[in-house]
Amino acid sequence: MVDLPVLDGGRSRSVTDQVFDLLYDRVVTLALPPGAKLSEAEVAAQMGVSRQPVRDAFYRLSQLGFIEIRPQRATIVTPISEDAVLQAYFIRAALEESCMRVAVQRLTQDHLVALARLIDLQAQEIRAGNRAAFHALDDRFHHDICAFAGLEFVWTLIRDNKGHMDRARYLSLSYGSETAFAEHGQILEALRHRDADAAVAAVRQHLSRIEGILARLRLDQPQVFG
Fold this sequence. Notes:
Layout: H1 15-28, E1 37-38, H2 40-47, H3 51-63, E2 67-68, E3 75-77, H4 82-106, H5 109-128, H6 131-148, H7 152-161, H8 163-192, H9 196-220
Antiparallel strand pairs: 1-3, 2-3
Helix pairs in contact: 1-3, 2-3, 4-6, 4-7, 4-8, 4-9, 5-6, 5-8, 6-7, 6-8, 8-9
Domain HTH gntR-type: 13-80
Keywords: DNA-binding, Transcription, Transcription regulation
InterPro entries: GntR_C, TF_FadR/GntR_C, Tscrpt_reg_HTH_GntR, WH-like_DNA-bd_sf, WH_DNA-bd_sf
């Protein structure tokens, strides 16, 4: 059982949402790896909440395919599903490629400078070997392109569908972060030149790396798959 924080009762979000968000993060970052057991009672006790919001959060996670609730047996974190990863990739690629065509028209010089700063921060985290921080900055880079283009809702759709893809990506950051970093530079360069076709091609290449990641994980860590 992974350590979970006691919830801050002063937050405006519902208790169920807070429990869900924390468990979702633990599953995606593999702090709760495939096969990990979850106890409704233990989660409630650690987080200082009643069992009902934990039960509701468990249900939401099960509907997304991240945990399996087994009556009279332990609830477990599901293995990574290759089909679920590829479905998430299909959705994300379609949305981000469309976003790029809008972004090349709408991003200002200030936006481009802000994205360049993010890439500089990514370089620092790679040098420091901070996988979690790089992952967060990776997400922020993609989010900010959508937001700067006036398409924040697109990132909301991507975020809600990319969790299975993220689990595989997170496992690859020990060897794939430098490639991801370089490809962020290519995306930014295409945006700077207002080249929609190049931006689309760059983000397509970047996201399609997931297929190679899956193949490598199948060899290196077959135990994480169902």
